[in-house]
Specification:
It comes from Apilactobacillus apinorum. With about 90 residues, the protein is mostly helical. About 55% of the residues lie in helices and about 5% in strands. Strands 1-2 form a two-stranded parallel sheet. Helix 1 packs antiparallel against helix 2.
């Protein structure tokens, strides 16, 4: 199931995503995030994390660096974002 879901997201990235304007507010992109979440947490939990990330990605959010966390959560990985900003000497 995990491999099937990853192939579906990769198909989206190759076939559908190039036809749409770039609009993801986060790094890594939402599709890459979903693939990483599925690989790290399995098909069901990874899919839930990916869907939560897609719902968070809208024009009214600041965005930024948001990698997949080591534990299951539907919320943003604020700790990794703060560490990244500190390492880049950003506010």
């Amino acid at each position: 199931m995990r491999n099937l879901m990853i192939k579906m997201v990769m198909g989206y990235k190759k076939l559908i995503s190039p036809l749409l304007p770039a609009s993801c507010r986060y790094y890594p992109t939402c599709s890459t995030y979903m693939i990483d979440a599925i690989r790290k947490h399995g098909a069901l939990l990874g899919f839930i994390m990916g869907c939560a990330r897609i719902l968070r990605c809208h024009p009214f959010i600041k965005g930024g660096y948001d990698p997949v966390s080591d534990h299951f959560t539907i919320f943003r990985n604020k700790r990794a974002s703060k560490e990244y900003r500190r390492s880049m000497n950003l506010k």
